[in-house]
Design brief:
By secondary structure, the protein is α+β, with helices and mostly antiparallel strands. 15% of the residues lie in helices and 29% in strands. It is built from 14 helices and 59 strands. Strands 1, 9, 10, 11, 12, 13 and 16 form a 7-stranded mixed β-sheet that branches. Strands 2, 3, 4, 5, 6, 7 and 8 form a 7-stranded mixed β-sheet that branches. Strands 17, 18, 19, 20, 21, 22 and 23 form a 7-stranded mixed β-sheet that branches. The longest helix is centred in the C-terminal third of the chain and has 35 residues. The N terminus and C terminus are likely disordered. InterPro entries: SRCR, SRCR-like_dom_sf. Keywords: Cell membrane, Disulfide bond, Glycoprotein, Membrane, Repeat, Secreted, Signal, Transmembrane, Transmembrane helix. One of its GO terms (cellular component) is plasma membrane.
Length: 1053
Amino acid sequence: MIKLCPFYNLALSEGSDELRLSNGTGPCSGRVEVKHEEKWGTVCDGDWTIKDAEVVCKQLQCGYAVKALNRAPFGEGTGPTWLYRVDCHGDEPALWNCTHTGWGAFICPHYFDIGVICSGFSDLRLTGGDTSCSGHLKVKQEETWATVCFSHIDFKTASVICNELECGQAVDTLRGTHFGDRHELIWQEEFHCVGDETHLADCPRNLHQTNTCSHDAIVVCSGYGGYRLANGSTTCSGRVELLHGGTWGTLCDYLWDLSAANTLCHQIDCGVALLIPSGQSSGEGNGSVWNGTFSCQKNGSHLRDCPVRALGQDECPAGKEARVECSGCPGGRLVNGTTCSGIVEIRHGDTWGRLCHSHWNLQAASVLCHQLNCGYAKSIKMEGGFVDGNGPIWRDAFHCEGTESCLWDCAQVTLGNPTCSAKEVATVTCSGNPGLAESLRLSGGESRCDGRVEISLHGVWSRVLDDDWDIKDAHVVCRQLQCGTAEKAYYLPKSERGMGLVGLRSVQCSGNETQLMLCNTSHHQTVPMGVSEDIGVICSGSRLMRLVNGTNRCAGRVELYHHGIWGTICDDKWDLSDANVVCKQLGCGHAIKAFVSAHYGEGSGQIWLDDVNCTGAESDLWACPSRPWGQHNCQHKEDAGVLCRDFLALRLVNGSDCAGRVEVFYNGTWGSVCSNSMSQVTTATMCKHLGCGDGGGIEIDFKYGRGSGPTWLDHIECTEQHSSLWQCQSDPWNPRSCNNRAEETHITCIGNQKFISAFAECPNSTSCSDREKLRVMGGEDECSGRVEMWHQGSWGTICDDAWDMADANVVCRQLGCGSAVSALSEAAFGEGTGPIWLEKVHCKGTELSLWDCSSKPLFGKSCDHKEDAAVNCSGRPRRPATGSTRLSVPVIFCIILGTLLCLVLAILAGQIRRARAQQRGSKLSYDPFSEAVYEEIDYNLMREKQGSSKPKEQFYRADSDEENGPRATQETSPLPENALEDGYDDATEAPGPRDASLSEQNEQEIIGIPGESDRNKDAWTDWTPRNRTSEAERSSSPALEDTGYDDIEELGH
């Protein structure tokens, strides 16, 4: 016999008072009514909360509260208003034990009657199945398990049940056994779920009116409880494991392919699938083996939609264990187009949105294409087939170099960026994958158009070796990659040669082929190992520009990357029009100032351009008129620099380093920010940005004074994920953002700046090298251990995210420990203490210092000391002699004797020199070689004043030839004012008197042709020959009267 629950009129009394729910869809939902003094009445409350409803549900033994409702959701009641403004903690035994105004203390209109929806049951389970994720559905009512009828659920309800039990997706609902004469408690409500509810109790339901139930319900779930990757080199690579029925096991998939792997990478927030490793690269599992397949079609196309069955450990055939290597770059995708083209969307938190086009460029687009395994960006123009999307439009600007692995590795600036309409969103058309270009790449260079040649065969990137690599072969590579023409074909130095698989050897091209595979090539299987070497290419499309030595990417010394070398620009004719082209090209707005005379410090190496003369409308600096590449008449003290509008800085004024009125530097001017809608998180971000701790508060008494400049920003909103203020959302830049000065932001941070003193820059002294700011700890010696770096006054560790052999090689080289043997992760030498300074270090392996590698400063809690990076190096450190070494008596004796001998020799040398001077004076003789030099100079000076002249560069040796060798010692006595008229800075060494060509020239040819200059040089010194002359001789020499030179080097002998 079936026992039915008497749910039609559920009321519970305590003492003389009673509680019930009326007019609901079931016994555990309805209008709350209380019986007091033998009369039923209602409860009125304008602030009825889930805690209050929890007490009602618990008192009625109806499980837990699902919803707390007011304004008569179950209709208006009758009778008195017994309780008003009830305030419960949630643990009271009865509703009237909560705080309230008193029985019947307030007469309330019945349209304010409150109601509740209780779960009606406290738990649910599936029983009698093969696993915990399939079986008969039962719910727990009070302390008894009730069976649910098959007719009371549908497939959507089953989906909610499977989700709540963490059993994946619903696979099926089945009719159970016939009840017959079984004595069981039957749940009397029908569930009508939409399918997206979190819990079964959230679903709408109503009482089953027929009171009959022939069969119970069986629910079959896929058993999926989640995925993970095990035994990989990163958190986004390895052997695929899935959770089924509470147990982790290796996935055995007979149809595992790149498409399935790509789906998995997306699901676990690891970007896209790069390849499927073969063999036992991720080790063997030591637990269960689950058989499943991503390609099953029932109810979807994911593994979580398919039933999973357990296999024995030995039942999965070799090679069928699923493995994958994901990109590890989540948060970016293309929509409304194709796989590799469309509208750009990025994710902030859990919210996807389109990206504004205003700061989108090809470099950032290429990084996204690479991140999505779609090659490189061919275009960022809106295509006709792209359809507008939905959701927010993010205003982030990504400033990429083009070689980053992920878009989020690029410098990110959002603060103050303008708003966008739906017609102004970012798009990209990638070259696509697979395709011709995607089978080839250049790695390890400064851009995608220079570096080591690598080819993809069967999904694996391999080396290309050749012993006769030339410019014709290189032309084909550049053409295939759409990188222009080849500028250089080269062999890699031994330190940069690869160790991986070899894909091709002996490439022979005519130079006209469209792809490398059309040339005569040999595969590595058919050609034995020989003297072939790794090859590299520099294409014309590799040309880059950067600003160096500024504290921000939008200010600094201008440097160009050309022919594989970084070099500077001479400041001759350098003005605001030239600087405007630089700032615009770098996405930094317009130029505020064009700097000359190495304002941001002197560069080194090549000087690429001179006499640059832009109109300001050019898209690239190298499109401006100038001298040919590498031709100049300058030194590095003439390096050009710029300050752009988008150079940003943050400071606190009128207080201390960590307290004051907030000001930002923008458009060349300091200005205040407004405090409207500013949260504690935003304040903490400012403090963190300034190095003043992780928190702070807004001062409301305006004790740091009023500003006088613009008020640049308002409504700044930061989140805990933001590592700097520049990444936060805000209103667009506006010099009148605040309504009045009372809205200016004043903050006090909880910490103090750690890098105030110069001593904090070094661990043991006021000055140090990069070598002294790096160490390894916890290993056997100074060449193995946990990597630690000194920064902001303390030692800290490095997160192992993306830590690899290239990074380890740089560390070992910097420590003087040879090359890296292994790059270790997960605190292999123990967990460190203190801060974790860096994450996602990305070295090419050729840098001299870890500080030269790209990386991200670590903010927040994305890494802990369980992920400290470590190295094992091949060499042993060179240990300097310690101060405790004792000197033996014989050594001390030798030092004393040596000192005495040097003293005697010095006295003898002085006497000999004095005797020779007297002899010269008596014979009126002097050094003929030195005299010949001075006569030659005087002769040439006179001749130039009388005759024609030659250009300056004929006698000026450029930096490109000498690489800025040592200069002559400069004297302190100044030249006359008219010495600056010519505008030239330096003269190189003049040849000796044996140079016949020089002896026929006049003085004017050596000095150079006087001419106009766009500005005066700011550095000049006197010229003094090696052999001293008298003051009279120097003052009367025509060579010093009007040279126009700043510096004249020593003359050669």
